[in-house]
Amino acid sequence: MIYKYTSCKRVIAKVFTDLDLQEDPHRVLDFVEWIGTALKMIGAFPAMVTKTLGKEGYPLLTIDEYQAKLPSDLHTINQVAFARDPNGPFFAMRYATGSFSSNHVVTNAPDPTTDANRTQPNSENNTIFSYDWFYNIQGGYIKTNLREGNLMISYQAIPVDEDGFPLVPDDESFLEALYWYINMKLLYPEFRSGRVRDAIYYDAKSSWNYYRKQAYGNAMMPDGDQLESIKNVWNKLIPEINANRTFFSTIGQQELFYNKNWK
Fold first, then answer.
1. From CA 204, how far away is CA 199, in angstroms rounded?
2. Do 53 and 150 contact (CB within 8 A), yes or no?
3. Which of 240, 247, 239, 241 lies closest to 93, judged by CA?
4. For residues 132 and 118, is the Cβ–Cβ distance under 8 A?
5. 131, 110 Cβ separation under 8 angstroms
6. Residue 137: its H or E element
7. Which residues of 134-165 are buried (b: 16+ CB within 10 A; e: fewer)?
8. CA–CA gap between residue 91 and residue 107 (Å, rounded)
9. 3-state SS of the chain: helix, strand, coil percent to 5?
10. Burial grade of 42 (CB within 10 A; 0-12, 13-18, 19 or more)
């Protein structure tokens, strides 16, 4: 579990110290890029921060002709909700399926929270298309089956500091993993040219692989409260098959049963 973040400058300082680099110009911007790459390669979602368009000062996305441009810092989408009015109400969308109608025009779709009239025939070619509200992602844009409206998107992004440098988890395994990734990248040209022995480069590579897995494990390990929610998810007789419609807000609640004969 990740609770705190620290500047990637701390990792860069460790590189300078441990490798005994002098205060001459070095590839600091390359270090920053490698740190961002290493964080993505570790692949632990708690190392990211969750942002919600429409909350905490982030504006909603406005659909224009069935599409909207995604934010530049987006890494992974958690969920998408749609509303005709910016003030809501918002309804959950699903990712598009279907071979021929991934962006079928639906101008008067019914309330997606009901199960009535979920599919209707297309009079033009006698095919079936869905009345659900859905989207897909293409080339940095989110494309919907609605011409206009507003999108609230929960997504994950790499956190950055005031200088635009990545923030990294304040965890020793992450710091070591990022250090060894930079070390490996610095050694690779030397290894290719034969200026360093194979064992030196492969030591850095194996250290990166070791700490990368350890960092992933540390980030993904749930704490006590998270374990309680996981327990509640697994110990249910009736699964919440429509949890997407409530934005998964109740999926971690304990299931309660009442005896109807109780007085």
1. 9
2. no
3. 247
4. yes
5. yes
6. strand 134-138
7. bbeeeeeebbbbbeebbbbbbbbebbbeeeeb
8. 16
9. 35, 20, 45
10. buried
User: How far apart (Å, rounded) are the C-alpha atoms in residues 4 and 14?
Assistant: 19
pLDDT in tens, 7-51: 998 898 888 888 887 766 667 888 989 998 999 899 888 888 899
Provide the residue ranges of all domains of the chain, joining segments of one domain with +.
5-47+159-220, 50-157
CA angle at residue 205 from 200 to 206, to 5 degrees? Answer: 100
Token reading at 18: 């441990």
**CA nearest 205: which of 218, 225, 186, 224?**
186
pLDDT tens digits along 84-125: 888 888 999 988 887 655 554 444 455 554 544 444 544 454
Looking at residue 30, its amino acid is D
Q: How far does CA 246 lie from the centroid of its chain?
A: 19
Residue 19's SS3 state is coil
